[in-house]
Design goal:
This protein has helices at residues 14-25, 37-46, 60-70, 94-121, 143-163, 181-186, 198-209, and strands at 5-9, 29-34, 51-54, 75-78, 125-130, 168-175, 220-223. The chain is an alpha/beta fold. α1 packs across α7 (198-209) and α4 (94-121) packs parallel to α5 (143-163).
Amino acid sequence: MGQRVVLIAGVTGALGRAVAEELSEHGYELKGIGRNESAMAELKQRLPALELVAADLTDLAEAGEAVSRLAPFDAVVDVVGGFALGPPLHETDPTAFRELLDLNLTTAYNLARAALPVLLERQGGPFVVTSARAALEPFAGASAYVISKAALLALMRMIDVEYRKRGIRANAILPGVIDTEANRRANPGADRSSWVDPRAIARVVRFLVSDDSAPIAGQLVPVWAAP
């Protein structure tokens, strides 16, 4: 097995749940941070051994407190994030832009700021962030989303540059459209043939937190179906 104790941020989302179930099935001890307390209670019923803390990771103090309560751990998986469409960049509402930047980037910064010292105390470990295919292949009408997910790649690369020699392996997964109930409701007529099953993404995450991926660091890992 790779790392024994994994902290999952965003564990109550569709992808977070899939990651938690995948890692649990393969013997990992799990700790999680979420915001939706009813979803946390439901997940706790499915995975009784999962240790959970509720926190708003856009808040630096809450992030620090949550990480402190859940430490120690051997790996971090960040699947916090959100998506929104909008007008062209010059018409984008500044408040909406900042909110999505906070959700996709500030949360990762706050998590990293709190969690990296924990990993350093344990001589390193994997740190996986969740960006998006759109960070490499942007499309119109989603400027805040694309910019925030692209910035997340820079954050991952800085973790790699500054901490790789101290044993921390940072990598980013870049999913395409994830096949979730929410996405199906939002896009009822869409062609889902290229959508990605959350369980497939979870298997990639499991690889990245395992010893099998030990030589891999600072990489962008695409996770989307072939056209």
